[in-house]
Amino acid sequence: MDNKWNKWIYRLWSPVYDSFFNAGPFLKARQKVFNNLDFHKGDKILFVVVGTGADIYQVPMELVDITAIDYSEEMLAQAKRKFSDAAITFLQMDAQNLTFSDEDFDYVIASLVLSVVPDYDRTFSEMVRVTKAHGKIIIFDKFTSQLTPLKRLIRPMIKVLGTDIGLSFEKIYENYKDNKLIIEVNQPILFGEMYRNIRIRKS
């Protein structure tokens, strides 16, 4: 996967994305991810790869300061149309190269992001960088604890569709243990153990 390919793939996905990933079990999973998150007035929230804006419905828009970025103009346009009357800053931006200052956001939220970006390590590093001390990183994505022979075989084919089924969150996190990232939640949330809800606090 690369940015050029992803832009083409998500141009195709944009008109129908919500029918698959913001409905039924995916919608229920998104709602669970945001359960018990303690937002305060004025909290700065960054949605990394906001897509069509599915997660924005899950936060108190009148209470917080929202910035939402996506590399795909078509996906971003869908989100802008949904929230045209809301005070949300929408920006076309590469998640691998965020243009924000260090420690800028109280919450950094990434749903179905690390499995679709070309460089998940760099993206996660950027997410950590822009999160404030004592801020939180919220991740909803698919990860695998074991890359079986079948997954190894079909992984390249699935990547053509714009997603990676072979990511290990533990391997991603291993590089950041010294950065004082504390995992508060790491639990399966959808389709057995395929999709996980991960909540990290930056100390």
UniProtKB/TrEMBL annotation:
Transmembrane segments: none annotated. One of its GO terms (biological process) is methylation. One of its GO terms (molecular function) is S-adenosylmethionine-dependent methyltransferase activity. It comes from the Bacteria. Keywords: Methyltransferase, Transferase. Residues 50-139 form the Methyltransferase type domain. The keyword Magnesium does not apply. CDD domains: AdoMet_MTases. The keyword Kinase does not apply. This is SAM-dependent methyltransferase. InterPro entries: Methyltransf_11, SAM-dependent_MTases_sf.
